[in-house]
Amino acid sequence: MGAGAIGRELSKPKDGSDMTDFEGAKKEIARLRNLLAEEEEKKQQAVGNDVARHIWQAFIGLHHGGKRVADIGSSLLLQRPAKQWLAPLDPLFCPFVLGKRAYLKAVDQVSTKEIFTVGVERHNGLVARYEIPCFRNGHANYNDSFVYAERLIKFVIWQKGGFRLHLHGPREICDYIAEAYCRDGIRAFDQRLMAQAYCNTFQTVIHETVARVPKANNETAKIGGNLDGCRIGFDLGGSDFKLAAVKEGEAIFTTEIPWDPYNEPDPEVHFKKINEGLALVKEKLGGRVDAIGGSSAGVLVDNEFRVASLFRSVSSKKFDTLVRPMMSRIEKKWGVPVMCVNDGEVTALAGAQSLKKNALLGIAMGTSEAAGYIGTSGNVTTWLNELAFCPVDFHPKGGIDEWSGDYGCGVQYFSQQAVNRLAPAAGYAFPDGMKLPERLLEVQKYQKGGEEGAKKIYMSIGTYLGYAVATYADFYPGLENVMILGRVTSGTGCEVILARARAILAAVFPELKVELHVPDEKMKRVGQSVAAASLPLSR
Predict the structure, then answer these.
(1) How many CA atoms lie within 13 A of 116 on its CB side?
(2) d(CA 508, CA 522)
(3) How far apart are CA 34 and CA 461, in angstroms?
């Protein structure tokens, strides 16, 4: 019923009376208000009957494949925390881990199910392979299988990387995923970025037999943890780049050099500036350099820049010819091993070296959510670990990433954007022109002053973190340590985040033995540069 229908209802009392008495009018107004509320609720749930148009249409109470399917309210994936563990400012939050567990438990109890197999292929023939049990067409939760498969694939693509999907299983689900990842599909952003990251056309291949889906193939080569000799470590940032002279694992000199890569279109200017910095540090090492290691924002694969916002002003042609191979150019110039990886990986490596613990996931909550992972052997993997784009919330009205347009992904839960999203519910309003870092500073000031609204913001982020750690543990087997850092964790709010997350892990996920950490002062000061310097082997 639309606004016009409701208008007609106003002019035509349900009981046929002439509406001349005041009490009757009051009753009729109350009835119509309820009618309007019901109509609004229906509008929020009914988003169309074209399932391929949007992933969350799998939750609606309309039609799919000619059969009645479950509406959003009966989805197994929409599991909210127990009352005491709800996010104070986000009561709709439906953690990925709770939805996943409810789905797998329910589908396991079905006598007849189908298996959807997916292999996510990345560089050098590496493959992550998963088997997903699915409800058959006609089951009340049939559409949950579409959503769960899509969300899991989305997570794996951004966690490990991939440019080719190998699919086998229920044809409707295979077709749905293929359409989602086509050039104009709902995952067009993801397929475009992955094609750029791996210098390959993104493909989805539907196989007739499961045997044709490639078997899992994980990398064996690991990097990092090399502290011998005289090394240079660097970290490329948006306003400066940091450098350190590292001798036998100890930083003997550090410096920061201002630069403005965002607005410089000539990659040779960047190349020259970096080499000038390296030459400065070489002097501090007495003229001896055995290896050079670095970190940078962006996507790096095989020691090449593939997606790098630092060099956004460089033309695509010059990017491919001069920026992409920049590390190999530096290696050729200096005659020593040179390696650069994503800054999230180096942060995790620095955390592992500082704590002397492995199996560590580092999560930096700043402008976005940056992440890195150190395996059980203490080395950096070749995974992307771009958790900013990995789902943590199943609810279709969760935070929306303005870049990808997707719902429920980490960037809206572990960054300045998360603070800004939660602020209105906490009672805070900011001037339109105020930037996110300034808004964060205001919230931190309110938190320091003991305001309840600010505390609820940090409690909500702590709630997200507690459940997200359990989610991440499913994708990082053997995870034992999580280190959080970044602007959002500055000040007393960090204590609130940690206390809430630890309480949830202890009460809801006692089987997980994951410790939460924050960096010490030494790691903040020189840990990143020392870790970066340890990336390559020396000759």
Answers:
(1) 25
(2) 34
(3) 34
Considering only CA atoms, which of 168, 162, 177 is closest in space to residue 125?
A: 162
How many helices and strands, by DSSP H and E, does the chain display? 16, 17
Report the C-alpha gap between 340 and 301 in whole angstroms. 9
Residue 531 host element (H or E): helix 528-533
- What is the largest distance, in Å, between two alpha-carbon atoms of the chain? 98
Per-residue pLDDT of the chain (539 residues; tens, 9 = 90+): 433 333 333 333 344 434 344 455 545 555 655 555 455 444 433 332 233 334 444 443 333 333 333 455 589 999 999 999 999 999 999 999 999 999 999 999 999 999 999 999 999 999 999 999 999 999 999 999 999 999 999 999 999 999 999 999 999 999 999 999 999 999 999 999 999 999 999 999 999 999 999 999 987 667 888 989 999 999 998 878 899 999 998 999 999 899 889 899 999 999 999 999 999 999 999 999 999 999 998 899 999 999 988 899 999 999 999 999 999 999 999 999 999 998 888 889 989 988 999 999 999 998 889 999 999 888 888 899 999 999 999 999 999 998 899 999 999 999 999 999 999 999 999 999 999 999 999 999 999 999 999 999 999 999 999 999 999 999 999 999 999 998 899 999 999 999 999 999 999 999 999 999 999 877 776 777 888 999 998 87
In sequence order, what DSSP letters do the residues of 198-258 get, joined into one string?
HTS--EEEE-SSGGGSPPPB-----B-----SEEEEEEE-SSEEEEEEEETTEEEEEEEEE
For residue 46, which of 56, 68, 61, 34 has the smallest C-alpha distance?
61
- Specify the pairing of strand 240-247 against strand 250-258: antiparallel
- In contact, 354 and 522? CB cutoff 8 Å: yes
Is-contact 75 160, C-beta < 8 A? no
Residue 196 is encoded by which pair of tokens?
Answer: 């750029």
Contacts of 251 (CB under 8 A, 6+ apart): 233, 244, 245, 526, 529, 530
Helix (H), strand (E) at residue 370: strand 369-374
Contact 177, 52 (CB under 8 A): no
- 122-143 burial, b at 16+ Cβ within 10 Å, e below that, comes to bbeebbbbeebbbbebebebbb
Extract the tokens encoding 503. Answer: 């309480």
Distance CA 191, CA 180 (A): 9
